[in-house]
Amino acid sequence: MTGTIRMDSIFTSVLLHLPAPTAPVVAAVDWHSVLFLLFAGLACGFAIAVVAAENVVRMALYLVFSLAATAGLFFLAGADFLGAMQLMIYVGGTLVLLVFGVMLTAQAPLVSIKPSASDRALAGIAGAALLAVLLAAAVSVDAWRKPGVGEIPSPTATPLGMALVGVRVDDPPAGAPLTGRSGYMLPFEIVSVHLLVVLVGAAYLARAKRRKTPRAIDVLASSDPPSQGAVLAAAVPAVRTTSGAGGKSALLGGGH
Amino acid sequence: MGESILSGTVFAAGISVGPAILPGIFPLAPLLAFNPFTEPVGVIHYMIVGAVMFTAGVVCMALKRNALGVLMGIELVLNGANINFIAFSSPYLRGDGAPTLGLDGQLIALFVILLAAAEAAVALAITLNFYNNHATVDIDRADDLKG
Amino acid sequence: MAEFLIGFGLPGWLAWTVAALVAAVLLLNVIAGGALVFIWAERKIAARIQDRLGPTRTGGRFGWLQSLADGIKLLAKEDLMPEDADGLLFRMAPYVSFCASFCAFIALPFAFDVVGQRLNVGVFFVVAVLGLEVFGVILAGYASASKWSLFGAMREAAQVVSYEVPLGMCVVLPVMLAGTMDLVTIGEKQSGWFINWYLFHDPFTFVVFWVYVTCAVASVNRAPFDLAEAESELVAGFHTEYSGLRWSFFFMAEYGSMFLVSALAAVLFLGGWNGPIPVAQLLGLSDGTGDSAAYAVRLLGLANLLGKATLGVLLMMWIRWTLPRLRIDQVMTTCLKYCTPIAAVMFAGAMLWQLLLPGGLLPGFSRPAGEIREGWLEGPGGRPAGSAAGGQERVKEPLRGSQAQSAAEAGAGVDSGLATRSPR
């Protein structure tokens, strides 16, 4: 009832649980659960859409939506740093996938490479079986089926950073079976070196080559791209030559 | 697609639809009792999302002939696993003082994201090389080493 | 506001929902209204720089209703789509761009605690979401089935992904000085006289601010970095095939992003909502002196931040109409050979400055560096002590179940972790 602006608290209250009102006009809505359903539906729906789509650019777009919805799930679970990281690295990395999809499939014959019907049926059966096994395993443990009523998680950026340099400042989780938790300095260093190696390796692998194998020349000569394909095919090499540095840095952006 | 139908059913069953069509091997009572508008979610709901994403990723990897499609399947699989790590690390979702992974779960998820980025970089470079050599990204054409 | 509604007997969740919707509409209005004003300003500035008059008739003396008239014209325009276009992606692209630009506003504070959602990782979130705007551009370029569009989109992809690296390194400096990624705390740590702004913290931050300006202009695709829509080479780049309302969504996204990076610069380097002279402090206004005083402080802060962000946008316009466009290889060179190394060296320099001169160059005059580290190591038992933002004591209590109570009391602050409210 203060006259001040309190916009920040509004979203907080939406994201976190609201107390049941004493005299409800309508049944109290648990916004956490509603948002969870929204993000979960988006994540699952677009994940399935990735499988169902044929066009590689659309696949990449659906993947982006799925991963972004997953970032929303991370925020809801209280992993704020991980959520932002998911948005920056995972979704940003998929951006590069999207660009490659456009570049590599600009010729019309390659836009959709369809699997055969029998492959589809087999994959469907195998996928259904796998899903059944996973779900059966997931629901078979009673302790996992309790609704969550825990405390609001505290910010994670600082304790994560401290843990990465080898110091743990977070309280051990309630009832944790493990004692003597350690920092993650060594894995952090290993991952840093790993990323450097990957950067150098990817830049080496993807360096511009001028020669083409005879087979590639055959394929290119035999294909008969329609108008759009020809236009886009003309665009592709130009893009690659003008932004040779950009291609590398795109990988760098995905990995930094 | 078969798995999309099933997953849709199971997921919807968690919300409202009838239990009659579900096989008896799933003890889904708590999910069916879950009213999304008034009750808080728990770990199991995140696990279901993770399972659907994982399955979609595996099917994507197996089904797609486009090298980029296979890569996207890998991303989905890793992401599905990450969801589980996050869910088990969240004291909010476990509730009732149940043991959580705490910060370790988030740290592992963080490393998974980093390594996925590294993997994508190398795999894209390989795909680009493959395209340069074969003028296609159809992985069924990568049969040069076949005897 | 939600407390206000609860006062009328609305149930808590409904009140919060209404309040959230109002906040969302307010944020939307910041973008739409901002675009309206900035488009007019751009026309006038461009005209002045080119020795013209610009719009003079529509809406009175200065043509200040010109953008509104433009908007009506765009609404009435026919919505065209090329025959070969990928319909779904073509229709979706403007909205993807606009949503990314809009989402980044969620974590942007407009004054102390006037923020959609106070995130502990605010800076990171804003930069990450801002990078997603490029998706819409790439989709537009691909789906248009036009070579001009595709060229523009590919240039934009290479440019934005590259410029995220130096941009991130520039942003890290204030984060390091403040010891937190929370934008509200970063802004609040620069309170007082302008000497406390991170721009004047040390020579390295001063240099890195200009690197940030360069990268920000590049990452929102303004001239001289507007290769994606280079009208002398690519017709209109990625939005060649767009018209009417869809095109205006791209436009609004662009102006929203411009405002966003300017506001981010203001919060990170220019003291945010703290003016060069601490007027509110000199007048004795603070949160502690009553509701109306707190309201006045926030209003003043809002005016400060909007003024600084607008200055940033005007600076971008000035640059746009003054400098010629770069070539794509020059753009890449600027990023990879100049901005990135400079930002990296400045980062190392600022780190050393923190270590060697923890008291600042003029002890007692300028603010000592890095006095608080989010309170993580200072509170009892390693738990976060109350954040020192605003220099006020905070009452810590669990949010859940006590929200209504504390809201009714309206005297107790809540430190919930995900977001922090200021005490009254």
What does the model show?
The complex is a heterotrimer of chains A (256), B (147) and C (424). Chain A is an all-alpha fold and 256 residues long. Chain A contains 10 helices and no strands. In chain A, helix 7 packs antiparallel against helix 10. The longest helix of chain A has 25 residues, at 80-104. Chain A is extended, with a radius of gyration of 24 Å. Chain B has helices spanning 2-15, 29-32, 43-63, 67-89, 91-94, 103-134. Chain B is mainly α and 147 residues long. Chain B contains 6 helices and no strands. In chain B, helix 1 packs antiparallel against helix 3, helix 3 (43-63) packs antiparallel against helix 4 (67-89) and helix 4 (67-89) runs antiparallel to helix 6 (103-134). A two-stranded antiparallel ribbon of chain C has the order 1-2. Chains A and B meet through helix 2, helix 3, helix 4, helix 5 and helix 6 of A and helix 1, helix 3, helix 4, helix 5 and helix 6 of B.
Number of helices of chain A: 10
The largest contact between protein chains, plus residue counts on each side, is: A-B, 116 and 101 residues
Sheet with the most strands of chain A?
A: none
Helix amount of chain C, in percent? 55-70%
Please, what is the CATH homologous superfamily of chain A? NADH-ubiquinone/plastoquinone oxidoreductase chain 6, subunit NuoJ
Q: How many domain units of chain A?
A: 1
Gyration radius from CA atoms of chain C, angstroms: 23 Å
- Terminal CA distance of chain A reads 46 Å
Estimate what percentage of residues of chain A fall within beta strands: under 5%
Summary of the model, kept short:
The complex is a heterotrimer of chains A (256), B (147) and C (424). Chain A is mainly alpha-helical. Chain A has helices spanning 7-15, 31-52, 56-76, 80-104, 117-139, 157-164, 185-205, 214-222, 227-242, 244-255.
Question: What brief labels describe this structure?
Answer:
heterotrimer; A: 256 residues; mainly alpha; Four Helix Bundle (Hemerythrin (Met), subunit A); C: 424 residues; 3 domains; two-stranded antiparallel ribbon; 2 strands; disordered C terminus
Architecture blueprint of SSEs:
The complex is a heterotrimer of chains A (256), B (147) and C (424).
Chain A: H1 7-15, H2 31-52, H3 56-76, H4 80-104, H5 117-139, H6 157-164, H7 185-205, H8 214-222, H9 227-242, H10 244-255
Helix pairs in contact in A: 2-3, 3-4, 4-10, 7-10, 9-10
Chain B: H1 2-15, H2 29-32, H3 43-63, H4 67-89, H5 91-94, H6 103-134
Chain C: H1 2-7, H2 12-49, H3 66-76, H4 87-104, E1 109-111, E2 114-115, H5 122-130, H6 133-143, H7 147-178, H8 183-188, H9 203-219, H10 244-268, H11 279-283, H12 291-320, H13 328-356, H14 403-409
Antiparallel strand pairs in C: 1-2
Helix pairs in contact in C: 2-10, 2-12, 3-10, 4-5, 4-6, 4-10, 6-7, 7-9, 7-13, 9-10, 9-13, 10-12
